[in-house]
Amino acid sequence: MRHTAVEEWSRGASPLHRLNPVAKLFPLAVFLAALATAHRELPPLGIGLGLLLVTGILAARLPVLGVMLRGGVVLPFSGVFALVSWLAGDPVRAIELVLKSYLSALAVLLVVATTPVPALLHSLERLGVPAFLLTVAQFLYRYLFVISGEAYDMRTAAAARGGLTFRAASGALAVLFARSYSRAGQVHRAMLARGFTGRFVPMSPPRLTAVDLLFATLAAVAVIVLRVAVERLA
Amino acid sequence: MHIPDGFLSTPVWAALDAVAAPVVGFVARRAQRGFDESKAPLLGVMGAFVFAAQMINFPVGAGTSGHLVGGALLACTLGPVAASVVMTAILAIQALVFQDGGVLALGANVLNMAVVGVLAGYLPYHLWGRGRGRRAAIFAGGALSVLASAVLALAELLISGVRMPGPALSVSLGLFVISALLEGAITMTVVSALEGIQPGFVRQPSTGRSFAMTALGIAAVLLAAGGVVFASTSPDGIEQLAIQAGIHKPLAGYGGGAGLAGIALLYVVCLAAGRVTRKRST
Q1: Which domain holds residue B264?
Q2: Is the ipTM of this complex over 0.90?
Q3: What pTM, to 2 d.p., does this model score?
Q4: Is A169 found in the same domain as A219?
Q5: In the beta sheet, which residues pair with residue B59?
Q6: B46 contacts in A (CB within 8 Å)?
Q7: Contact (CB<8Å) B41/A117
Q8: B79 — alpha (psi -120 to 50), left (phi > 0) or beta?
């Protein structure tokens, strides 16, 4: 499955992996906002920001080609809209759609590929996202692979029998629902037995160090300087 | 339809993020208060279920297939507030981990699918979920949920200035209607299969028809309809709209009436289709 690659990448040990997630989320927000609000000189700005991301991928010791291809998951969607825009006589918008959606996805991917999802969600709580929502998201991510595995098995079994009819697919989905529901009950009882109080507590709450602050500042400044420079020089 | 980053203009994504943040906070508080803490694992695992359900393909004929979107199914089983939290968590994981939908566009996607989609999906069930038209209401809920989300997303794109010439617009509206009908059919058949396994899975709508719920649901549907009106009158984006505002051109015209009438007509068709399938299956 395609998500295992990101999961594996996020367990690396580069300096970028060791940073506090908040120190990566802040420059990410600056990057996304700087890109989204840019309208002039997009191709050179895109190349500059792209090079910045590639530097990040190299610093994180991740496979550059693999990460860049993985970021391309947005391209089928934006490609269709870009084509429609192009045919409607707006080639500038077409380039803008592809460039912005791809670079934004790549930036998000770089953060997720250097931060394990549980740590990422936990840091979002410190940024003010409702704790209940994040606890739900934590469980969702933990059981995503388990339930997907069951769905995959069901699909394989159905294919072996010659495919599902509409009614049989409904039955399969209902069974998957019932299994997930009862699994949720088991999960909860097992967690209660281990002293679960209703929220996840990390083993060692990460603190923002001087290195984190330095990285966050430098990365954000690099993005802003790049955009200002591109727009001034043009 | 998950909107990626780079599609929405800055006023649109910023405004929708600003609206979505307090709404999500409110819904999360309500869900937490309405349930005991044991529901967090349940909601999370059911979110994983909706994710995994995408793997089960429903044959539609002509070699194509569709899959469950889930907003209406969750609303009928877990209730609308919990469904909204689950859908928000799904969208957040999709945006962060799978780059399916943008991070800046997350507010837009959450409002389209987790808030308006769930409310619109629950409204028919809330109104007619107890009587004879129950199955029809579930069908209509599934269809309305997908239609409202998709139409809102389209409106946001058009307002942001993404070009959609007439033919492309008709094709996408046609696709929306097909996927809406498909979601209605999937939701309805899965709910009845679930009741066959264990009737307790499906919540009965509350006896005293809560006014707030009805009002919110209707507001969600009207918002989607309003989105179409707004977008169809301003196909050239917000710059054009500013010019129009300058010369004071009334918004509600032929396009507005047609948009609303289209939604109403589709709603009736969904209800009727649900009734027919119900008769055939009993």
Answers
A1: 10-281
A2: yes
A3: 0.86
A4: no
A5: B65
A6: 177, 180-181, 184
A7: no
A8: left
